[in-house]
Amino acid sequence: MSEVQQTKSVSVEEGETLVKVNDLKTYYGEGGLIDSNPVKAVDGVSLDIKRGETLGLVGESGCGKSTLGRTLIQLENATSGEVLFDGTDVTELSGAELKNWRRNSQMVFQDPESSLNDRMTVGEIIREPLDVHDWKTPRERREHVRELLDVVGLRPEHYYRYPHQFSGGQRQRIGIARALALEPEFIVLDEPVSALDVSVQAQILNLLEDLQDEFGLTYLFIAHDLSVVRHICDRVAVMYLGHIMELGDAEELFENPKNPYTISLLSAIPEPDPTSDRERITLRGTPPSPRDPPKGCPFSTRCPMKIRPEEFEDVDVDLWVAIEVFREVVRERSRAERSATDQLKEMLGMETRFSDIGEIRQELFGGLNVPRNIEKHIEETAGYIENNDDQQAREYLRDVFGSICDTDEPDDFVVSDTGRFSHCHRHLDEYEEPDEFTPYTMR
Ligand code: SF4
Q1: Closest ligand 1 atom, CA of 425?
Q2: Would residue 285 count as lying in a domain?
Q3: Pocket test for ligand 1, best of 239, 244, 299 (most atoms within 8 A of CB)
Q4: What is the per-residue pLDDT for 443?
Q5: Which of these, 20, 102, 160, 385, has the minimum number of CB atoms within 10 Å of its CB?
């Protein structure tokens, strides 16, 4: 991992850029009464999309993929940052300018069952964007819709039928025809085949590829099925908790992932070869709340390659995992909302569901040999918790057991001569790759 070049703004070397995204943030619920922390759905994304390519966007559900796709085509408002289409920052557009630009970018939705209005005929559904934009004459619109039906493999007589008369695959063809109606350059495909049977998925993927060749379309293909992404995408961006962790050529990234999150994600793909010795990494728990993301690297609460502080480099793996789990328990506890009853009980010194730290310690560290230089920190933390100072406990643990992964957001590092980048401190020379992954599950 050491032969890398550090960069803050990564540019694509080859191919003309159609979409350039700079430090894009999309936050929700800022300034709410109950919890003033905003949900950081997209939190500082920078990437380029080349004209005519398919860029895959993958990651666990809730990582911000759909919000990023929707923000790119202005179905969501960006909180800050830029989305440059052919050099124009579309986050700054409004009114007629925005409406006019919208012709250029469309979206195909995941669920063909619910994304079409069942009270409109197929012809009306596909024609609707043409009517909204007052495209040519009504007669030309009808003719264009009939052409589009043909282009997506439907028949002219389908014009007057209703969506419920069609199968899932046919309904997705209707959605694609509608997206094509205004002859856009850029289409966000949000899980376009994940609600379909496998045999139908292949037909729709082939259709999307044919349409791309015919009309020179550029796609952002959002998916959680990694084998589909490998099949259809030129490049892939891997997203976690609002951040792009790795982005680069699809085949290269699948063959030789560089970022710990990509490595973990790909290791979960079922291996067809039973004799393969590929290590399967099971990530513990779920991603943290996007209302309260980790301070340093977004993946730091689950990363199996996380950098340890020098002082604890030789600590036994089982004990280190127990410490990390303990940190997560304390972290979640400091986030949890106390009910009015719990608060009252705490004031009266009564037992609450938040006062079981002794039990947690016993469960995590009971069967382990815990040296004194670690035990004293666990005790100190337990003291803060018993005094209901969960925030202090959390910070104390971070100060003692945290590393650069907990305190500093990593830069993007170029990790191959094709311009692939990875968002991880492990690419710095001083943090050599560990010999093995920390198995991030309790044994
Ligand atoms: S910066 Fe640290 S926690 Fe983040 S992916 Fe790299 S090793 Fe893991």
Answers
A1: 1
A2: no
A3: 299
A4: 34
A5: 160
User: What residues does ligand 1 touch, defined as CB less than 6 Å away?
Assistant: 260-261, 297, 299-300, 303, 305-307, 405, 410, 424-426
Q: Edge to edge, what strands does the sheet with 243-249 contain? A: 5-7, 412-414, 421-423, 243-249, 235-240, 54-58, 218-222, 186-190, 105-108
**How many C-beta atoms lie closer than 10 Å to residue 201's C-beta?**
20
Whether 106 and 115 have beta carbons less than 8 Å apart is answered as: no
Amino acid letter for position 405: C
Q: How far is the CA of 282 from the centre of ligand 1 (A)?
A: 16
Report the distance separating Cα 309 and Cα 327, nearest Å.
Answer: 15
Model pLDDT, residue 441:
43
Same domain, 249 and 191: yes
Atom 6 in ligand 1: which residue has the minimum CA distance?
424
Q: Which atom of ligand 1 is nearest to the CA of 405?
A: 2
* Domain extent at residue 386: 310-344+352-402
Which residue from 406, 425, 440 has its CB within 8 A of the most atoms of ligand 1, so it is best to mutate? 425
Tell me, yes or no, whether 338 and 246 share the same domain. no
In a domain, 108, yes or no: yes
Q: Which of 98-112, 168-182, 347-361, 395-409 has the lowest mean pLDDT?
A: 347-361
Based on the domain organization, do 256 and 332 belong to the same domain? no
Q: Which of 6, 261, 305, 437 to mutate to test the pocket of ligand 1 (most atoms within 8 A of CB)?
A: 305
Residues 137 and 26 in one domain: yes
- Give me the chain's average pLDDT, please: 88
Place of tokens 């995204």: 21
Residue 356 forms part of a structural domain: yes
Final residue of a structural domain among 383, 402, 421: 402
- The per-residue pLDDT for range 27-83, each reduced to its tens digit, is 998 755 555 789 999 999 999 999 999 999 999 999 999 999 999 999 999 999 999
Residues in a beta bridge with 28: 39
The percent of residues in the chain predicted with pLDDT above 90, rounded, is 71
| Distance in Å, CA 344 to ligand 1 centroid | 40
Distance in angstroms (rounded) separating the CA atoms of residues 68 and 49: 13
Q: Are residues 32 and 107 in the same domain?
A: yes
Distance 349 CA to ligand 1 centre (A): 40
Q: Are residues 262 and 319 in the same domain?
A: no
Distance 424 CA to ligand 1 centre (A): 5
